[in-house]
């Protein structure tokens, strides 16, 4: 399996690793098939992600997608973070082997889960903003094209 230099960079030196003690949103997702687990911590102020961290148990691709996804949403509004797609994550990494596309889906889902948690903590129904099973032309859903 061949990884791009960008994937290897984010695997060897991942950004935004760890937990946030002052997080006001946490999203955790996993893939039973491969055993990967991603947990994203957000500190949101005035609808903007001020800080973000992640903890991922998984392969190099899972760590790399977590790292790049956190970089891509830091400083963004919640709406901008929700627009993050796994395709965008893959593009930022310069590609992933087909067998590892599910890692980018997990990164997208972890961000959505964290934003949903934020809305829930604010007393807002996250279903109004967050579609956890979204599947359209902006999202490739890994093996078989099956989201959710």
Report on the architecture of this protein:
- This protein is of the alpha+beta class and 148 residues long.
- It has a single domain (5-139), classed as Alpha-Beta Complex (Sufe protein. Chain: A).
- It has helices spanning 5-12, 60-73, 78-82, 86-92, 101-121; strands spanning 25-30, 37-45, 48-57.
- It has a three-stranded antiparallel β-sheet.
- α1 packs across α2, α2 (60-73) packs across α5 and α4 crosses α5.
- It is globular, with a radius of gyration of 14 Å.
- It starts with a helix and ends in a 27-residue tail after the last helix.
- 40% of the residues are buried.
- Mean pLDDT is 89; it is low at 134-148.
Write a brief structural summary.
The chain has 148 residues and is an alpha+beta fold. Helix content is 37%, strand content 17%.
Question: Which tags fit this structure?
Answer:
single chain; about 150 residues; alpha+beta; Sufe protein. Chain: A; three-stranded antiparallel β-sheet; 3 strands; globular; disordered C terminus
């Amino acid at each position: 399996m061949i990884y791009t230099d960008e994937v290897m960079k984010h695997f060897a030196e991942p950004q935004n690793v760890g937990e946030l003690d002052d997080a006001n949103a946490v999203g955790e997702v996993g893939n039973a098939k491969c055993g990967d687990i991603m947990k994203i911590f957000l500190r949101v102020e005035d609808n903007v992600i001020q800080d973000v961290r992640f903890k991922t148990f998984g392969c190099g691709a899972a760590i790399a997608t977590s790292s790049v996804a956190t970089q891509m949403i830091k400083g963004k509004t919640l709406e901008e973070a929700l627009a993050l797609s796994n395709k965008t994550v893959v593009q930022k990494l310069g590609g992933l082997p087909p067998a590892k596309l599910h890692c980018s889906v997990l990164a997208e889902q972890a961000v959505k889960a964290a934003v949903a948690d934020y809305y829930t903590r604010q007393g807002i129904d996250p279903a109004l903003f967050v579609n956890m099973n979204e599947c359209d032309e902006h999202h490739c859903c890994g093996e078989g094209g099956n989201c959710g």
